[in-house]
Amino acid sequence: MSRPVIGIIGNRALLNETYPIHGGGTMNMCAVSHVAGGLPLIIPADPDLVSVEDLLDTCDGFLLTGGRPNVHPEEYGEEETEAHGTFDRARDRITLPLIRACVERGQPFLGICRGFQEVNVAMGGTLYAEIRELPGRMNHRMPPDGTLDEKFALRHAVRFTQGGVFHRLMGAEEVMTNTLHGQGIKQPGARIVVDGHAPDGTPEAIYVDGAPGFTLSVQWHPEWNAADDPVSRPLFTAFGQAAADWAAAKRAPVRKRA
After folding, report:
1. Catalytic site positions
2. Where would a tag sit more exposed on the chain, N or C end, judged by fewer CB atoms within 10 A?
3. Which of 3.30.70.660, 3.40.50.20, 3.40.50.880, 3.20.20.70 is the CATH number of 5-251?
4. What Å distances lie between residue 192 and 4, 30, 48, 51, 209, CA to CA?
């Protein structure tokens, strides 16, 4: 049986500081292939190149990746400020309608970091421009120096709702995660359930209430060490199973009425 196709949202970058590309981190592809059991397919997040309809027809699930540019605050009714950082409006125009379409259809997605924030905005929520400037909040940003191991090291706990979706999936009410983000959820969107928080109250795990498909999203980066990390592995395994189920249903012959 063929593997489910997982569309990995790509990010714009400059190769050698001059040549524009759409790319994706190797660790995302390894997590999709080796843990989720999917066929990784990088998506150029640009509506001039792809349409939401094309993507829904081609892919069985979507990995909404992290990325340095932030969702433009115009998408949630706020003015742009210097604190909001850089943007990728083309990615906004692909991912936000894609998320809403997946929620409606039941097509699975897994949101990571920026992808987590995109899910909240797509459902009508808002974001803080800079978490570390809020009273009582810790600095959730990636350490500026060090190796990848040091940057992606486990840095704080996340506590899930007792008996909730993430608690049941992980088999633990509290887990340790990495943290590499500047922004975070201010107001949850309609139907967004915040199912896990950092010790400082920052939302870290969400899903869409009543959605017919897999909509789990996390603020940390589970793609790092996904095959061996006890938190990352069940997340990607469950996502891969949801994508496989979608693919199987798509291939199933439609029975004619007698």
Report:
1. 113, 221, 223
2. C
3. 3.40.50.880
4. 26, 28, 30, 25, 6
